[in-house]
Amino acid sequence: MFRIWHVSLLTALICLTGCGAQPQNPPVKPDKTEKPKSVEAKPAAPKQYKLTGVVREIDKESGQVMIRHDEIPGYMKAMTMPFDLKGKEVLADLFVGDEVEGVLVVKADDIELNDVVITRPAEPSALNFGPNGLEIKAKPATLLPGEEVPDFKVTLQDGTPAKLSDYRGKLVVLTFIYTRCPLPNFCPLMDRKFGELAARLQPLPKADQVRLLSVSFDPEHDTPAVLASHAKSRGAKMPLWTYAVASHEELGKFGPKLGLMYGPTEKEIMHNLSTAVIGPDGKLIRLDYGTAGGAWTADDMMGTIYKFTSKP
Ligand SMILES: [Cu+2]
Question: Which domains does the chain have, with CATH numbers?
Answer without folding.
Answer: 47-122 (2.40.50.320), 133-307 (3.40.30.10)
